[in-house]
Write a structure and sequence with these properties.
Length: 225
């Protein structure tokens, strides 16, 4: 049976500028099933990142309803929303967002600390993912000692370590060369096909967008029909 993961109904988000409402998202209606791979395209400023942040429970919205795995996000308290995020969602950012003071190992381990997983289990899970991404040799290095591609791989490893059902990727290959970018996209494809992870990526790249099974075009905060 197909499970609906994300259901956005008439979602709008705005800021007030000089007494006028400027819409960042306007009347967004979107249904995403579990196991989908969706690409969101649109020029800079079209609302791609805002939409991902709303889906990822990082941003609130001003109007509309959002159901995530049948939970009414628009009615949940902050604590409950944050719990949903930590249990089910992995975020991959263009700017990596790694913590410079932590080693590769510690960066990847961070999401597990929120889940009260005991130390020996955490070690096994992190060891497994270091192995999967071929970065065992880098585990004691700090982010500043890595190339951009390596930092992005660590960012993805961190997003995946807690086995999220949903990965949200914001321009995940934006700072990488084409070979590294391709490796990252192949990795997403594999996660989607083999592990059944639902993926929603925002991208400028037609080539990257083509990895998705559906492309959604955004313009001025609205989905283009």
């Amino acid at each position: 049976m197909e499970v609906i993961m994300i259901e956005l109904k008439h979602i709008s988000k705005w800021v007030n500028v000089g007494g006028n409402r400027v819409f960042l998202l306007k009347d967004i209606n979107l249904t995403i099933k579990e196991g989908a791979f969706i690409s969101i395209m649109g020029p800079s400023g079209s609302g791609k990142s805002t939409l991902l942040n709303v889906m990822g429970l990082l941003d609130e919205f001003d109007e509309g309803e959002y159901n995530f795995l049948n939970q009414p996000v628009h009615q949940l308290k902050e604590k409950h929303r944050s719990q949903l995020y930590k249990s089910h969602i992995g975020f991959v950012f263009q700017a990596y967002h790694l913590i410079d003071e932590l080693t590769v190992y510690e960066n990847i381990e961070t999401p597990l600390l929120y889940q009260n997983i005991k130390s020996s289990d955490r070690q096994a899970i992190v060891a497994d993912i270091l192995d999967r991404f071929n970065i065992v040799g880098k585990k004691d290095l700090f982010p500043t000692q890595l190339s951009g591609g390596q930092q992005q791989i660590v960012g993805i490893a961190r997003a995946l370590v807690a086995k999220p059902k949903l990965i949200l990727a914001d321009e995940p290959t934006g700072n990488l060369n084409s070979k590294q970018g391709e490796e990252i996209m192949e990795l997403f494809k594999q996660l989607n096909k083999e592990d059944g992870v639902t993926i929603v990526q925002a991208t400028h790249s037609e080539k990257n967008a083509a990895y998705g099974s559906q492309i959604i075009n955004l313009l001025d905060g609205k989905i283009e029909k």
